[in-house]
Amino acid sequence: MTTHTTRLLGAAFMTSLAVPAFAGSAEPVQTEAVPAPVVMPVASSSSDWTGGYVGLQLGYGEVTDGLEGNETIGGVQAGYDWDLGDWVVGIGADANFGSIETSAGDLDSLSRLKVRGGYDFGKTLVYATTGASYAASSDLGDEWGYFGGIGVETKLTDTVSLTGEIATHRFDEYGSYGSTTANTATIGVNYRF
């Protein structure tokens, strides 16, 4: 072996002995553990409208077309809704009392059997409603008709909601008075269960 090769092998051997010595004397690198991200629940503005309700309403009623009159009205309402995701459908009934004094006598009550359907904005429901309307009067007689309206209902809590609705009721043959219209605007509070 040549001197040059011997020196080269000796240097390689000495380096291999020194590397563990240097490795042991080096300080370890400190790394901080990064905490895992925590997923926080997001407060949802959605609300489930499925269920029954009962409530009270107060408003204004006006009779036109052959019978003229207006008065404050109030009553009760009840129904059941089904939440289908973005849409809500329901059935219900209500009765409003408070004699509407007309040119020919008093309209004693206005009751309805209704269906409604609307868009679910979370805690607010905007809807359209229609169905059968029944006008009762000891002076004018009783008559069945139909109605259409729009409304909004907003949940204050899971069990209490406020409503507002306007509707037009049509009676094609109200006794001898012919075609008659009754317009109503009501606000109400519901207990939902």
UniProtKB/TrEMBL annotation:
This is Opacity protein-like surface antigen. It is found in: Membrane. Keywords: Membrane, Signal. It holds the Pfam family OMP_b-brl. It comes from Aliiruegeria haliotis. The keyword Signal applies. Residues 33-193 form the Outer membrane protein beta-barrel domain. One of its GO terms (cellular component) is membrane. The keyword Membrane applies.
